[in-house]
Predict the structure.
Amino acid sequence: MRALIVEDEPTVATDLRLALDGAGFVVDVAQDGEDAWFKGGVEDYDVAVLDLGLPRLDGLSVLKRWRGAERMFPVLILSARSDWTEKVAGIEAGADDYLSKPFEMGELIARVRALVRRAAGRASSTITVGRLVLDTHRMSAMYAGRPIRLSQLEFRFLDYLAHQSKRAVSAGELAEHLYGAAEPGDSNAIEALVVRVRRKLGMEAIQTRRGFGYVLADDGP
Ligand code: CA
């Protein structure tokens, strides 16, 4: 999952980056509104955390421009004041959630995860696809009833596939969401990753759709 943090205060931005990284996200940071508008316009994020008070272009304008350009990833707004008019303006501009500063990092992470789940149409922190059960809160996995030990990257890979329901995902798209880049070399890394995960789960767990990409087997428990 890719997250964009838009925050001009360096210490807050660093705390957010570390916390989201620890929660399994690939994170980009924009430090002003114009950079945020650019990144959100060209990159494919799964969620954004957007501060309202920003240099160059304020957060509300960034959000309106994203939505006007059909950039529909979920957005959590951060505001320095607990001002309800600002909250209403944010939600009218297309925000999905709102937190006022100072906030508890644990609450922010829980809300960001909830936004990603909601965007994928799921309400619980457990995702089941076929024989695979992922707990996105504990970052743990079970396959055919047995616990599977996964690296953080392997978990991110399965988590991303599980959020796409039955759509096959290309190696390029996976590289972009797992590494934050889509270089040709990254596609080879994805192939190696698929081999490792198949070794742990079983060959049948991840299917290859020739010409399209990878999809989780969904043949029931
Ligand atoms: Ca600010």
The chain has a mean pLDDT of 90. The pocket of calcium ion is lined by residues 8-9, 51, 53-54 (CB under 6 Å). Helices lie at 10-22, 33-42, 59-68, 84-92, 105-119, 152-162, 171-179, 184-201. The longest helix spans residues 184-201.
